[in-house]
Design goal:
Blueprint (H helix, E strand, L loop, with lengths): L1 H5 L4 H10 L8 H40 L1 H14 L14 H20 L4 H9 L3 H34 L11 H31 L4 H18 L5 H32 L4 H32 L6 H16 L8 H9 L3 H15 L5 H35 L26 E4 L19 E4 L44 H16 L13 E2 L2 E2 L2
Antiparallel strand pairs: 1-2, 3-4
Main location: membrane
Family: Belongs to the TAPT1 family.
Subcellular location: Membrane
């Protein structure tokens, strides 16, 4: 450029300048340092993501094994307690504890749905699906995935409504009649969701048994379409947390579906080990595609939204906090229900289908067979206990690293005198919010009173509380909650204040005005579709 400005340009000088021209990267050091950190973050994403996925997988496995191992024992203990009541003097106490009532409800739902599943012919459904064209099966499989997410989002609300209706304090005995319609609704939900998962398993089985594997390839390519729908969207910290929970649930469900496919195929080939080696390459291919899609999706989402890889350790700490808080004496919910609300994973329909498939694939006859079943059950109980112990130990470590252990020892909220909970109110989860307005569990906390955060999409109006001098430092409510009396408009004129008061309130008012309330990761328990909130 200087050659042209001096007025004596020549081709030789231009070529010499182009060949010897230099530049200094240190003049824009901040820009290149940021680009290098982005590369390092993308390289750390697979490791940090898989840590979260593995921890979430074992959380789902623990809730799933609970249905087969400890739930039957808890139901038997509750029934034994109910049968021995005539021999005991209750003295005005309730017949069963709320947890025992919920266990009996779950057991009855499992038994009824398993009996209803006997009227569904798996073989007929398989051949009916196999007779369809490839493009029809591809469309059906996509529709089933969407329907499964919708069923999961509404199903836990149905079960929570049943549990609360069965255990809430009742003034009259005839109020217990309301449990019957809720119970019928819950039974039909679990039955329909189990049939939906059975159709998914049948479609996947048809893809495995197709000669040219074209359907299986199309189904795997459908996972990469998910990248297009997620990567180019704006994600915040909480949205990514919801999508991570959804990915954990989908991966665990895929593993169970692959197990069902292998069981059905092994039964058709008389449990030949040679056919198992034929199925394993396709199984590994499906699992590898799931892992690759999750890694690519999360790597580019964190890159485009400038989110660090350390956020996955915070997500893991939030899941660990849920596990520990549900094991306490003052827990507000059962652990399996907490996992269902957090991840959208409801184990009852999947457990009913797996029991149906196993019972139809394995013939149990003779004393030796029953002995093998007993040993297998003892092995499942052992696996459940060991898994729970390891998860509790790891969860304590994660919670201590995140400095969240002080929330575990705060007392649950007590109801105001003279106030009875509304029957239409949703199930709440007790958490202790920090004093910071942002609600971030990893920020500095000030002592405050715990509160119950509702797990429903719409919240009920909260009663007006007379302020006290000690309540002046309590953080204001989030914008998602409503109150019967609106807050005063900050734009309305106020009486003139003295200069000393104006100077003292200026910084606080500016700070409250510019702060934007954010959701705590411990409060994110909505069900998601492709990582988006359903609000």
């Amino acid at each position: 450029m200087l050659l042209w400005l001096n007025g004596n340009p020549s081709l030789a000088r231009f070529m010499c300048a182009e060949l010897t021209r230099g530049y200094f990267l240190e003049h824009n050091e901040a820009k290149y340092t940021e680009r290098r950190e982005r590369v390092y973050t993308c390289m750390r994403i697979p490791r940090e993501l898989e840590k979260l996925m593995i921890f979430g997988f074992f959380l789902c496995l623990d809730a799933f094994l609970y249905v087969f191992t400890l739930l039957p024992l808890r139901v038997l203990l509750a029934l034994l307690h109910l049968l021995t009541l005539p021999c005991c003097n209750l003295g005005g106490l309730r017949l069963l504890q709320p947890a025992q009532v919920c266990d009996i409800m779950k057991g009855l739902i499992m038994v009824l749905c398993y009996s209803m599943m006997h009227y569904v012919d798996y073989s007929m459904m398989y051949h009916l699906i196999r007779g369809q064209s490839v493009i029809k099966l591809y469309i059906i499989y996509n529709m089933l995935q969407v329907a499964d997410r919708l069923f999961s989002s509404f199903g836990q609300d149905i079960l929570d409504a049943l549990y609360w209706t069965a255990t809430e304090p009742k003034e009259r005995k005839r109020d217990s009649i309301g449990v019957i319609p809720h119970f019928i609704m819950a039974v039909f939900y679990v039955f329909l969701h189990a049939i939906l998962i059975m159709v998914q398993a049948s479609t996947l089985n048809v893809a495995f048994n197709s000669h040219n594997k074209s359907l299986l390839t199309i189904m795997m390519s459908n996972n990469f379409v998910e990248i297009k729908g997620s990567v180019f969207k704006k994600f915040e910290k909480n949205n990514l947390f919801q999508m991570s929970n959804s990915d954990i649930k989908e991966r665990f469900t895929s593993y169970v579906l692959l197990l069902i496919v292998c069981l059905r195929n092994m039964e058709q080939f008389s449990w030949s080990p040679d056919h198992l080696w034929v199925l394993l390459p396709d199984v590994f291919m499906v699992i590898a595609s799931e892992i690759a899609v999750d890694v690519i999706k999360h790597a580019f989402i964190t890159k485009f939204n400038e989110i660090t890889a350390d956020v996955y350790s915070e997500y893991r700490a939030s899941l660990a906090f849920d596990l520990i808080s549900c094991r306490q004496k003052n827990a507000c919910t059962d652990y399996s229900d907490s996992v269902a609300r957090r991840m959208g994973f409801i184990p009852l329909p999947l457990a009913v289908l797996l029991i149906r498939v196993v019972m139809s694939s394995v013939n149990v006859q003779g004393a030796l067979s029953y002995s093998c079943v007993s040993l297998f059950y003892m092995g499942m109980v052992t696996l459940k206990v060991l898994n729970s112990i390891v998860l509790l130990g790891k969860s304590c470590v994660y919670v201590k690293r995140a400095n969240m252990e002080d929330k575990l020892f705060e007392k649950p909220p007590t109801a105001a005198p003279g106030k009875t909970p509304s029957r239409t109110s949703k199930t709440s989860r007790c958490t202790a919010p920090s004093g910071d307005l942002s609600g971030d569990p990893w920020s500095e906390r000030s002592p405050s009173t715990p509160s119950c955060t509702s797990s429903s999409v719409t919240t009920q109006p909260t009663p007006t509380v007379i302020p006290t001098p000690q309540a002046e430092t309590v953080a204001p409510l989030s914008t998602s909650s409503t109150s019967p009396e609106p807050d005063p408009d900050p734009l309305t004129p106020s009486p003139p204040a003295t200069p000393e008061q104006s100077e003292g309130d200026g910084t606080e008012g500016t700070e409250l005005k510019h702060r934007t309330p954010k959701k705590d990761l411990l409060d994110v328990d909505r069900f998601t579709i492709c990582g988006n909130r359903i609000d």
